């Protein structure tokens, strides 16, 4: 079987097993490309943004990795890489346990595209909107590299490690997302942290700032800014998860940013600033600066690097302020 992209004729193979797909990739080398939904790749080939390969390795025949399973033993949701974005958007299991992912995939393209596009393809693109959400969810990837076993790697390490971790020809088979239980937790936050914002008291007996007992509950959100209202590539995507105390202190916060051609990434310095801190307007202003400094955005004809950084900082700090106000 063959298809045509411009003047180029591209052969299409349809393996039924992982090992056959892997063999075809090793034989075809850089000229062979794995394709599932293929929505992004075909668009790039048709408009000349990327050169069409000599061989398409269709993965539709490897059906065992098209599923969404709640694994109680692992305390996680396991999503097959060939699961479509629309199947994820409609999944009651995903909605109940990781609504951030529902928000992310719902913001991707039009419904007709989501019915074809797969989670594995969104991840393989490296800049897919779902990746920003999965990164903040501490997702883990199951990879196949042609050997007898499967490899587990955190999405964070897969992104940050570059080609030495991603490797050539590795197939993403599953995405494992830990389930965060929203169980109230108590912790002592030093009253001196954020005292300029909150107005914390001090211990009159020894002159030391007194610790404040705070009850924490989980929060999470995903935001996307596109070039128009809907069905548009992202300019900026952000996500955050963590725990917020009733007295305005944060704990276990993770924040991510992506969008455009930028590789989604964690905002480590901003996370360190926020965790264990009681927050008010002045510390949010400082957080805004740290987010801009840590945001590794890439500018293009539609939006400059500085604009993307500022938008990411605005989106994150605005949502955090909304949480604080209740």
UniProtKB/TrEMBL annotation:
Boundaries of every FAD-binding PCMH-type domain copy: 5-182
Membrane-spanning residues: none
Pfam families listed in its UniProt record: CO_deh_flav_C (PF03450), FAD_binding_5 (PF00941)
GO molecular function, one term: oxidoreductase activity
KW Oxidoreductase (keyword) present: yes
Keywords, ordered alphabetically: FAD, Flavoprotein, Oxidoreductase
Domain of life: Bacteria
SMART domains, per database record: CO_deh_flav_C
Protein name per UniProt: FAD-binding PCMH-type domain-containing protein
């Amino acid at each position: 079987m063959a298809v045509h992209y411009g003047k180029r004729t591209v052969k299409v193979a349809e393996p039924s097993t992982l090992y056959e797909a892997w063999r075809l990739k090793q034989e075809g080398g850089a000229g062979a490309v794995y394709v599932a939904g293929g929505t992004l790749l075909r668009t790039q080939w048709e408009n000349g943004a990327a050169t069409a390969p000599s061989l398409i390795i269709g993965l539709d025949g490897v059906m065992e990795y098209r599923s969404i399973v709640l694994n109680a033993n692992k305390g996680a949701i396991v999503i097959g890489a060939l699961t479509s974005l629309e199947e994820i958007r409609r999944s009651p299991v995903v909605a109940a346990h990781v609504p951030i992912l529902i928000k992310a995939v719902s913001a991707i393209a039009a419904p007709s595209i989501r019915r074809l596009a797969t989670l594995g393809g969104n991840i393989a693109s490296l800049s897919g909107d779902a990746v920003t959400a999965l990164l903040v969810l501490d997702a883990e990837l199951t990879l196949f590299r042609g050997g007898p076993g499967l490899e587990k790697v955190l999405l964070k390490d897969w992104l940050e490690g570059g080609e030495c971790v991603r490797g050539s020809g590795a197939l993403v088979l599953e995405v494992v997302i830990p389930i965060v239980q929203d169980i109230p937790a108590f912790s002592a936050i030093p009253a001196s942290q954020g005292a300029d914002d909150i107005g914390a008291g001090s211990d009159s007996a020894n002159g030391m700032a007194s610790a404040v007992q705070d009850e924490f509950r989980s929060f999470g959100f995903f935001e996307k800014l596109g070039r128009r209202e809907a069905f548009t590539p992202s300019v900026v995507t952000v996500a955050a998860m963590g725990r917020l105390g009733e007295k305005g202190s944060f704990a276990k916060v993770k924040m991510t940013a992506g969008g455009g051609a930028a590789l989604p990434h964690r905002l480590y310095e901003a996370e360190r600033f926020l965790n264990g801190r009681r927050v008010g307007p002045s510390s949010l202003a400082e957080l805004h600066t740290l987010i801009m400094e840590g945001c590794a955005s890439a500018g293009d004809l539609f939006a400059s690097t500085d604009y993307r950084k500022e938008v990411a900082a605005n989106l994150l700090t605005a949502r955090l302020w909304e949480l604080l106000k209740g």
